[in-house]
Design brief:
By secondary structure, this protein is an alpha+beta fold. It has helices at residues 8-30, 88-91, and strands at 37-41, 47-51, 56-61, 67-73, 76-82, 101-104, 109-114.
């Protein structure tokens, strides 16, 4: 039973909008670009590029002496460890698609996957 204010046409319009949103979301999900490099921005404004295909671990000391460990392995990157209080950067998990990023705001460090055709544009960046 539907509410009195909801008519048959309303249900059809809502269904069409939901279906369009679902198909658009699926298209965006499967159209993400593969990664080529990892960019790490340091608190002093400098940055470094690393190949995402070369396994390595990068130790960083950020603002306030916060230590981070960035791990690059198997074409993915993650913040493996951070001394920051909230651990948002660690909970970002593995990043593998161009445009994905994890930031440790207290430390002033940002890890971003770059290369290929990024799905992040000027509006969403």
């Amino acid at each position: 039973m539907r509410p009195a204010w909801l008519r048959r046409g309303d249900v059809v319009v809502i269904g069409v909008v939901l279906a369009a949103a679902l198909f658009a979301g699926i298209g965006i999900w499967f159209d993400r670009a593969p990664a080529a490099r990892v960019s790490i921005q340091y608190p002093d404004g400098s940055s470094a590029l690393f190949s995402i295909s070369e396994n390595r671990s990068v130790e960083i000391v950020g603002n306030g002496g916060i230590a981070l460990t960035v791990e690059i392995a198997d074409g993915r990157v993650r913040v493996k460890h951070s001394d920051c209080p909230d651990q948002v950067c660690v909970h970002s998990g593995w990043l593998s698609q161009s445009g994905q990023a994890a930031a440790c705001v207290p430390a002033g460090v940002c890890v971003q996957v770059v290369g290929g055709d990024s799905q992040v544009d000027g509006v969403t960046a």
